[in-house]
TrEMBL record:
PANTHER family xrefs: GLYCOSIDASE C21B10.07-RELATED (PTHR10963:SF24), GLYCOSYL HYDROLASE-RELATED (PTHR10963)
Bias (Low complexity): 135-160
Keyword entries, A-Z: Signal
Coiled coil regions, renumbered to chain: none
Gene3D superfamilies xref list: 2.60.120.200
Protein origin, superkingdom: Eukaryota
InterPro entries: Beta-glucanase-like, ConA-like_dom_sf, Glycosyl_Hydrlase_16
UniProt domain GH16: residue ranges: 137-424
Signal peptide annotation: 1-22
Organism: Kwoniella shivajii
Protein name as catalogued: GH16 domain-containing protein
Region described as Disordered: spans on this chain: 132-160
């Protein structure tokens, strides 16, 4: 998770789940997991660079980390449920007979810590075009499109086939909940699954959409309750679609839909939908190990523009750029982020990770291509992407592998709460600083004392869908 004319790194953390008949775990693996301290998960150490009034990037450093993963056969998925999920059935509306079998935790395994170095802690998933390298992961239990084509498309010739869907009553069966301290040092208290259901911060609404909210109790201490979920599915290459009707918005918020690999930054990070405070523009970012660079004509092949900063903006290496990486901000597409996104009923974000590279599109609610709604996506018909990172000098399977999707709403933290961000305006569509908008001199004071201001800080997600292609991946 990251950023900007500001760029921030977001942590990565990957774990495992059982409920899979072909799962093989070595005694060393289980021993390493048992030795971990749940109260001390991997942390990203953030140090924000001084803010520059000429709008250069604001940077945050984060440590490398490793993850705990195991291999399994995607065809061996079975349905299971935890006691927490059983106890929360009163929060779920209706039935979904078409729900896809999903994975849940049978053991509360802690995530790998930043200090782990043993390669025996995890076994990376093997990746083939047929099984898409899936594994399981957990961490505790008139709008303008960015595409140049119309929503009305001809009959699809898609090479992509759907392999998994999170939607309806089973949406939260596909994820696990982060319930430790925020690695980005936010004024936030992330809840585990049971507390999230019982507090009402997660639910399936009457439209069978997943809702992930922030606590609106007016005054709190320590941190405001919020949600961070990690997808169970671990994958290398593919096409992922996310349809949301609403996203968190407003001063103090740092929402993101993103994905991560093991051993950050060597496994790569892709920030698909991210921003802070009252931004109205989305930024898509890559963070990698050394060696991944972008071509000088990058901007001519995408709707967004490469952000500039103190380092080489074409170098995606976190090491070489103090975690700046490669960021593309879309200053053209209307209503792709924040309040504008919510005002049109959101839309669909699509991330294609293929041999050609990594690309992200956004389609507003009124202009979603028919091939997407028909589950036969055809990116070749979508026109120019919001962000397009070609594979010319950045092998998409060398610098990115074994990813899992993450939704979270951090509050304040290393980006949204940094003095140079809280007190600054004039970038990413935000024309007034949050200090001026709220009357609070710090983000933390605002978050702790103004709960009613976070009524709009929620995700409302219709689905997340994963597709595979035997020719493009």
């Amino acid at each position: 998770m990251h950023v900007s004319n500001l760029i921030l790194p977001l942590l990565t953390l990957s774990v495992t789940t059982t409920a899979v008949s072909a799962l093989h775990i070595t005694p060393q693996h289980k021993k390493a997991l048992a030795a971990q301290k749940i109260s001390e998960p991997a942390k990203r150490e953030g140090v924000l660079a001084a803010a520059h009034k000429n709008k250069v990037k604001r940077l945050v450093k984060k440590k490398k980390r490793q993850s705990c993963q195991v291999r399994y056969n995607a065809t061996s998925i079975v349905t299971s449920s935890t006691a927490e999920e059983t106890a929360s059935t009163t929060s779920i509306v209706g039935d979904d007979a078409s729900a896809i079998p999903t994975l849940t935790n049978n053991e509360n395994w802690a995530n790998a810590t930043a200090t782990q170095t043993s390669s025996s802690v995890y076994e990376t998933a093997s990746t083939t075009a047929d099984d898409w390298g899936f594994s399981s992961a957990s961490s505790s239990s008139s709008p303008q499109p960015s595409s140049t084509t119309s929503a009305e498309t001809s009959q699809s010739t898609s090479s992509w086939s759907k392999v998994e869907e999170w939607s309806g009553n089973s949406f939260f069966d596909n994820v696990n909940f982060w319930e430790w301290n925020d690695p980005t040092h936010g004024t936030v208290d992330f809840l585990g699954a049971s507390d999230a259901w019982n507090s009402g911060l997660i639910s399936i609404n009457s439209n069978k959409r997943a809702v992930m909210a922030v606590d609106t109790t007016q005054v709190v201490s320590g941190g405001r309750k919020s949600i961070r979920i990690h997808g169970n599915r671990v994958f290398t290459g593919g096409l992922v679609l996310m349809d949301a009707y609403h996203m968190p918005d407003g001063c103090g918020t740092w929402p993101a839909w993103w994905q991560n690999g093991p051993n950050w930054p060597e496994g790569g990070e892709i920030d698909i939908l991210e921003g802070v405070n009252a931004f109205t523009q989305n930024q898509v970012s890559l963070h990698t190990g050394q060696g991944c660079t972008m071509p000088s004509d990058l901007n001519s092949n995408q709707v967004g523009s490469l952000t500039t900063g103190s380092y080489n903006s074409y170098d995606c290496s976190s090491t070489n750029t103090a975690n700046q990486g490669c960021g593309v901000r879309d200053e053209t597409t209307q209503n792709a982020y924040g309040s504008g996104f919510n005002s049109i009923g959101g839309g669909v974000y699509a991330m294609r990770w293929s041999k050609a590279g990594i690309a992200v599109w956004f389609f507003p609610r009124s202009n979603i291509p028919s091939d997407i709604t028909n589950d036969s996506p055809d990116p070749s018909s979508w026109g120019k992407a919001m962000a397009n990172f070609p594979s010319d000098n950045c092998d998409p399977y060398q610098f990115f592998y074994d990813h899992y999707n993450i939704f979270d709403t951090t509050l304040c933290g290393d980006w949204a709460g940094a003095d140079g961000v809280w007190n600054y305006a004039g970038y990413a569509g935000q024309d007034q600083s949050c200090a001026a908008k709220t009357g609070y001199s710090t983000c933390a004071d605002y978050v702790l004392n103004s709960g009613s201001s976070f009524a709009d800080a929620y995700w409302e997600v219709s689905y997340v869908k994963y597709f595979n292609s035997t020719t493009e991946v």
